[in-house]
Amino acid sequence: MQEGSPFFSIIIPTYNASSTLATAIESILSQTYTSYEILIMDGESSDTTVEVAKSFLINNSVISITSQSDDGIYDAMNHGIKKTNGIYLYFLGADDYLIDNNVLEDIHQQLILTSTDVIYGNVQSPSLGSNYMGECDDQLLFHKNIAHQSIFFHKRVFELTGNFNLKYRTHADWAHNINWFFNPEISNQYLNRIIAHYADDGYSSRTKDHHFRKDLFSIYYLNAINRNSLLKVVFNITKGLFLRLTR
């Protein structure tokens, strides 16, 4: 990291988010830990989203705004990755917010202690509950995704995994999570802490990702086999399918 660079780079992809963006930004600006930058990646909103973002610029040099055509939320996130200066990256939805003022302080302290590549916690959401989803394991990740609003990534993770796959319109983060979770070169740690409020009524909850559903078996198998026997991988998939059908 260059001298004076932030510890965290917080990327907020936006599109017509004028009614919620201020809350998301304010939840970051109120943090007790202040070594961060905020990158607003706007997809040429037709409402006042950019104006809302610009209203924070007067007193906050840590915020940058980019408004350009993109191919959806993950394309905006990928563009944001290229612009980051921080060590750890975090992606916050424009309709989400950090749950309290000490989130970044607590995460920073834990990362200083462990130097792990990925640290993740929990989110609070209207439909998923107050503590989604707990510690992940090899089997659970087949049928449940870790919310990206709960994850902090060392920048090198994307050097090892590549960026979000734009083939997957609503679950590119799930495909990416499977990739890093099973990668032997990437360390991860669970922290039993709520990171953010996740407004789970957005695009991903309203739109089926047929490409991801079709590819889930192969994505999971090709990654899980890195540390599981074939029998164990098949067992995890079978159990995951059963849980999907019965939940």
UniProtKB/TrEMBL annotation:
Name the CDD domains for this protein: GT_2_WfgS_like
Q: Which organism is it from?
A: Nonlabens mediterrranea
Q: Ranges for the Glycosyltransferase 2-like domain?
A: 9-147
Database matches in SUPFAM superfamilies = Nucleotide-diphospho-sugar transferases (SSF53448)
Which lineage do the record's taxonomy fields give for this organism?
Answer: Bacteria, Pseudomonadati, Bacteroidota, Flavobacteriia, Flavobacteriales
Q: What name is this protein filed under?
A: Glycosyltransferase
Entry's Pfam families?
Glycos_transf_2
InterPro entries documented for this protein: Glyco_trans_2-like, Nucleotide-diphossugar_trans
